[in-house]
Design a protein that fits this description.
Helix content: 40-55%
Number of strands: 14
Structural class: alpha+beta
Strand content: 5-15%
Number of helices: 40
Oligomer: single chain
């Protein structure tokens, strides 16, 4: 017997449910699944279909098919809340049922937080349900921000997808106002609006960054974009938006259309050349240049990346071709030859606003300006040119390390809220400004040593960076020559070189470097710990050989004594002479500091060490507390660091001094000092201090 026979039986019966719910009857007829679904659809009402699901334990996919035949929303809601019927259903099957329901039923489920949590309906499924609502119902749901964000926990990008799907532009604008979405999602929504609305929002929105604004402009049609560039030149200038940055990422056809309007827009020659230089290759080739000015043709011939940057400098072409294209130039000259460096210096004069980039070991780029590059290279050349060609590599390295120490200081605002992590790692900016941090300083010295043929590698311990000098010959005091790998830590040598001291981190073995990591209290700071990369750094220059080496290049006297000896002796003499006049003793120590190092106020890290460890630690200067640190002037928006000294003693009480721009220490009464200066938040956190000058808590 087949489905046709069963259909005939059902047509003649008054109790169709009993027949279709009888397993014996169903086994008697050879039914396909389709036959079964057709009979249920034709002979049972929704209530009976519901009873059938309760009566027989069907497999989930069969149950899903039966549920799909039910249209009564109340019955569907009963089914969805019936754990027995829904047992075995996957989430996607559950969602398939829900999205076929009417708006009222869907909204009822969306407001049922217990149901959503019980069935673990995630934001992807919720997004599907809300997307299946009519526009008006979807708007109603989205307007309930508490439901969407706090109970359904929809992620921001899901909310943005739902808003973008709305057809009413005013509602989209409303959603932009009521949801605090990240800017990139706001931009995605804005780009679905009409041109007038986009431009209106663009001109009024203050918190967009440059690239948010460019993305909106790129979404305009060429006619509106051209008109915008005509009418809103000030907007582009104020937001550092260059027209080429918009055009270079447009589709080829859009670029082609824009070029036909190029002369209609009031752009400068440089702006036009930037646009032409950054067009897609196929568009450049398609342009008829017969009547083009030579300035346009030269721009078209310059090769750029898809992001609008010049690929590389062609040293064979006339550098005048690059004039005005500064914004496209981001050049790394680290591997340039001497001849190329000289030519690049000329290019820096033609294109003074180009960017000069350098990299560290992780290939992250850091930017210096053209003027900083020129200043740094001129300083480097002045040092190299003065080197005696007869000097050994070790002698040259001693001079370079000493010059680095005198030129560069550790960044005085390191680890504060105003610290610029990029500037203190940009190779030429470090030399030009005189400030850097450990890996930047190591890179600067490595760059110079490389120019001298001295091979090195930047090594990191995770918290500190320094150099491993490779295969170097070191002269020993006994006349022998030692050869191998050794460690040079430019940063840890800064204070020694600045004040003419013995560099204790010059050509030391890994074993010695690890000893230097241990402080006076026996704590190992692991600053040089890197067993894998430093196990072969075994060359250690003993003290006698170190003194002989620095004596040979005039950095130590005939007895191998370093210039700091004079500072130490004078400081001690002052301390003894003014033993009973602590106030005078302090002022004389400050004066000695200024005479020894006139720039002491600008090399704060080194000065702090000398003050704490030498000048203010003499035998007759006994203080209850002495703090040497940094503060900033409350009126200074840039919060530039200022060196200060706080002294508390029985004889003098509380004393506050600060270093002024003229390189001298001035004393201020405590009230005036507190009123004028402020601590960095990061310093307060680090030292667990209360925010009152001179009052410190352990």
């Amino acid at each position: 017997m087949n489905a046709k026979d069963l259909r005939t039986l059902l047509e003649q019966s008054d109790d169709k449910f009993s027949i279709l719910s009888s397993s014996e009857t169903l086994e008697k007829y050879e039914l396909t699944v389709k036959d079964f679904f057709d009979l249920i659809s034709d002979f049972l009402n929704d209530e009976e279909k519901f009873r059938l699901l309760e009566f027989i334990q069907f497999k989930p996919w069969i149950k899903g098919g039966i549920i799909g035949l039910i249209s009564n929303e109340n019955i569907l809601l009963q089914i969805l809340n019936n754990d027995t019927i829904m047992d075995g259903f996957e989430n996607y099957q559950l969602i398939d049922i829900i999205i076929k329901m009417n708006d009222s039923a869907k909204k009822q489920l969306l407001h049922n937080q217990d149901y959503v949590e019980k069935h673990q309906i995630g934001d992807y499924e919720l997004n599907k349900i809300i997307s299946s609502l009519s526009d008006s119902a979807r708007i109603e749901i989205l307007q309930d921000t508490d439901l969407v964000a706090n109970r359904l926990h929809l992620k921001d990008y899901r909310i943005a997808e739902l808003v973008k799907g709305l057809s009413d532009e005013d509602e989209k604008k409303t959603m932009l106002e009521i949801y605090e979405l990240p800017n990139y999602l706001k931009v995605d929504i804005i780009n679905t609006l009409n041109s007038d609305t986009k431009i209106d929002i663009l001109l009024k929105q203050d918190d967009f960054n440059k690239y948010d604004r460019i993305k909106i402009l790129q979404s305009l049609d060429i006619e509106n974009l051209s008109e915008f560039l005509k009418q809103h030149r000030d907007f582009c200038s104020e937001n550092d938006i260059h027209p080429y940055e918009i055009i270079c990422k447009l589709e080829a056809e859009q670029q082609k259309e824009f070029i036909t309007r190029l002369e209609e827009i009031n752009l400068t020659l440089s702006e036009k050349r930037e646009i032409l230089a950054t067009l897609k290759a196929e568009i450049k080739q398609s342009i008829d240049t017969t009547n083009f000015p030579e300035k346009y043709k030269s721009a078209l011939s310059i090769q750029t990346t898809e992001y609008g940057g010049i690929v590389s400098i062609d040293f064979a072409r006339a550098f005048e071709d690059y004039r005005g294209l500064d914004n496209l130039m981001r050049i790394n000259p680290e591997e340039f030859t001497e001849e190329q460096r000289a030519q690049f210096m000329k290019l820096c004069e033609i294109c003074p606003n180009l960017q000069v980039v350098s990299t560290l070991s992780n290939s992250v780029e850091f930017v210096s300006t053209a003027s900083e590059y020129k200043e740094a290279e001129e300083w480097i050349s002045s040092i190299i040119d003065k080197l005696n060609p007869e000097y050994s590599q070790a002698q040259k390295m001693a001079i370079i390390d000493n010059e680095i120490g005198k030129k560069i200081s550790y960044s005085p605002d390191f680890d504060t809220e105003v610290f610029d992590s990029a500037n203190c790692r940009a190779l030429w900016k470090i030399i030009s400004s005189g400030y850097g941090v450990c890996n930047g300083i190591a890179r600067a010295e490595q760059y110079i040593l490389n120019r001298l043929g001295i091979e090195s590698e930047i090594i990191s311990s995770g918290t500190h960076a320094f150099l491993k000098i490779k295969d170097i010959e070191l002269p020993l005091a006994n006349g022998e020559i030692a050869r191998g790998n050794t460690i040079l830590d430019p940063t840890w040598n800064l204070t020694s070189h600045r004040f003419g001291g013995k560099p204790n981190n010059f050509c030391i073995s890994y074993e010695q470097a690890r000893k230097n990591d241990i402080d006076a209290e026996g704590k190992d700071h692991n600053c040089h710990k890197n067993d894998e990369q430093l196990q072969d750094a075994t060359l250690n220059l003993d003290e006698e050989s170190l003194r002989e080496l620095f004596k040979s290049v005039g950095l130590a006297d005939r007895d191998g004594q370093f210039p700091i000896k004079d500072l130490l002796e004078k400081s001690k003499q002052l301390d003894e002479f003014y033993a009973n006049q602590p106030d005078k003793n302090i002022s004389k120590q400050f004066l000695l500091l200024r005479q020894t190092c006139p720039e002491f106020a600008t090399c704060q890290n080194s000065t702090m060490s000398i003050l704490s460890d030498v000048l203010l630690s003499n035998e007759n200067l006994k203080f209850n507390k002495c703090v040497v640190n940094r503060v900033y002037n409350r009126t200074d928006k840039e919060k530039r660091p200022i060196l200060f000294v706080y002294i508390d003693s029985n004889a003098l009480g509380s004393k506050f001094f600060f270093a002024n721009n003229d390189g001298e220490f001035l004393e201020l009464p405590q009230e005036e000092f507190i009123k004028r200066f402020e601590c960095y938040e990061e310093d307060l956190k680090k030292h667990n201090r209360i925010q009152t000058m001179g009052e410190y808590r352990a």
